[in-house]
From TrEMBL:
It comes from Malikia granosa. It comes from the Bacteria. Keywords: Glycosyltransferase, Transferase. One of its GO terms (molecular function) is hexosyltransferase activity. It holds the Pfam family Glyco_tran_WecG. The keyword Mitochondrion does not apply. This is N-acetylglucosaminyldiphospho-UDP N-acetyl-beta-D-mannosaminyltransferase. The keyword Transferase applies.
Amino acid sequence: MDSPLTKTPRKVICLFGLPIDVATMDETVQRIREARRSRQRIFLSTPNLNFLIGCMHDAAFRQSVIDSDMSVADGMPLVWMSRLLGVPLPERVTGSGLFERLNTDPLPAGEEPIKVFFFGGPPGAAEAASQRLNSHAGGLICVGYETPGFGSVEELSKPDVIARINASGASFLVVALGAVKGQAWILHNLAQLQVPIISHLGAVINFSAGTINRAPPWMQRTGLEWVWRIKEEPLLWRRYWRDGKALLSLVFNKLLPHALWLRWQSKQTAARATLTSQAGVTHLKIEGFIPDPVPETVLSTLQQAASTNKPVILDLHQATGFGPSFAAQLLLLDKNLTLRDQRLQISPPPHLKRLFEWNGINYLPKASTRG
């Protein structure tokens, strides 16, 4: 089951190298239901602060988020960052909240519950989650579970394992192997899996099993859920301590300078994007300042560049700057070209190098040599 190139440009912003969809919980629920109806693949990632910090130091982990079909902000710090940069995400969209909404919202007329398969979690948790989920009528029903234990991605991806998941008839595969391994496992098996909705939702199995309680809604809304999680899982304090220190460094060294720079760009010359083709190569030239959100004319040109089936050389020497929305579109352009066995060639001019660093996309020139 393949995920086709997006015909309509995704509305995304870039936070330190990760594309984050500008989407509400309601919109995400609707997207999941549509994927179930059409059986069209959606690989959903749910980055939080720990994801973001980890992706800055792990290229494969970062690429798993970029390669997702949808990526929503599971952590309030990401929402706060977006607001500071002037590209506000509408709300936090947690994986556990999404799972709960799919289960508790009234089913659309004529639809049956979404069939779920749990893969991962601590011993006994997936079985308990299955029993609790099926103990009452709701929008979700568990049709299978597996606790594969420890092992490499390859060891947890044997053909009989994938066959059991596919044979279950599930529409929603919930993976819980730890964020890094879970994302890697999904990408490793994506081509063989016949389940349309796939996501690593690490805490969902524990929440569904009742082994861990979710924070009260007011703590979730105010960004204090981490306090509750430490109460429930004391060993998490080390992770939150490390992430908190890394966040402070990001805020003062990158986020605040970036936000201040963006505030000073209100009177820049409007952007213009042009495409030309020469000797089997597409040349994409950007001139002027690309504001947030990215103008439709520029988005259209980026879509054309991604569909040319040729390598793309991006010329930014006449560009005066861009915001997080354009940075995200560059990530998607590179991704879509890679899907077509093409590559993006980009050499940031000196006056834009700090923007590449602030947006976390300074790896793109190196990454563009893929293929």
